[in-house]
Design a protein that fits this description.
By secondary structure, the chain is an alpha+beta fold. Helix content is 23%, strand content 35%. The structure holds adenosine-5'-triphosphate. Belongs to the ABC transporter superfamily.
Length: 365
Amino acid sequence: MATLDLNSISKSFGTAKVLHDISLAIEDKEFVVFVGPSGCGKSTLLRIIAGLEEATEGKILIGGNDVSDAHPVDRGISMVFQSYALYPHLSVYENIAFPLRVQKMEKGELDQRVKRAAEILQLTDKLDLKPGQLSGGQRQRVAIGRSIVRNPKVFLFDEPLSNLDAALRGDMRVELSQLHRDLDATMVYVTHDQVEAMTMADRIVVLNGGRVEQFGTPMELYHHPATKFVAGFIGQPNMNFIPSTVIDTANGLSVELKGGHKMVLPVDTTTVSKGDIVEVGVRPEDVTIGTTGVEVEVRVLERLGGASISYGSIGGDTRFCASLPGDVRVKEGGSVTLEIKPEDCHVFDANGYVLRRQAAPELVA
Ligand SMILES: Nc1ncnc2c1ncn2[C@@H]1O[C@H](COP(=O)(O)OP(=O)(O)OP(=O)(O)O)[C@@H](O)[C@H]1O
């Protein structure tokens, strides 16, 4: 297995530049997920790594070797697509064996590899069936098996679970995480689903408009989003953003939130001045019902059992979602006061960049 380095990758289709100077160092055996909205360039970036698309600028290194000009089959990668691309007339065994037949691998070695892959993917009792006799999840496992037998240095996955229903997607997420541990392989996985990214990745690359917004572990992105885009994209339900006015910058950032609630937030104030408009981000799970805080009108209350999700707004037009206790006594059409702790707030400037948190006093030397 191997490291994967992207050095200043850019890509244009005609005059349209879709990837802008992307550099990433992916470690050996790491599971990295590219996530972002439709059209952000994640599939194009994956296809460039695979050699199915040529970068306009930049270099790709696998295991330290420059493969930018190498043919896809010579890169030591294997790609699993959203459409399983199985041969309907071939058995599961022959579908998995296909790339090895193309390589003209010796029969004993081929048989051993196919059976080992089938064992890992729990397909041993399905080897004689045809793809048409399998469920969607089993078909996707066959497609993954076809990747495994090639012993690639890097596995590439392009939205492999999008064709499956929600329950099966959940099961396959667990299976893929397990597969990653079993194979100890470098994996790059593309999805638009932030839940897949959060649950499977060692590190996540958030792409937006062909640029890397942030590259970090799931919890780094959740707790320390660098931009409003990342803050809004990672976490379910989405973070709330409250328009706020800076009222003072001495001893922390004093703000007046929409609706009139005032707070002092422990963030760096060097880039903002009194009178500036900022946005205070707070996650639905970080609020509690209290006596002082933001006044929220509740439009809909979804009772999930263990939690109740309230959908409403501050002042009629600033959307505010809160995750409250399952048996909370709140009426749809009523209002509720929600307490927000300063340490749970994220503050974004007019350009959507986060104001860094001040170091906790005990961390200051
Ligand atoms: N062959 C092509 N010719 C021209 N433009 C292309 C081509 N392939 C992709 N693009 C454009 O490049 C941009 C990025 O596309 P890409 O498929 O990489 O996005 P994505 O993030 O994978 O989106 P999705 O989740 O919808 O698949 C889009 O604006 C797309 O229209």
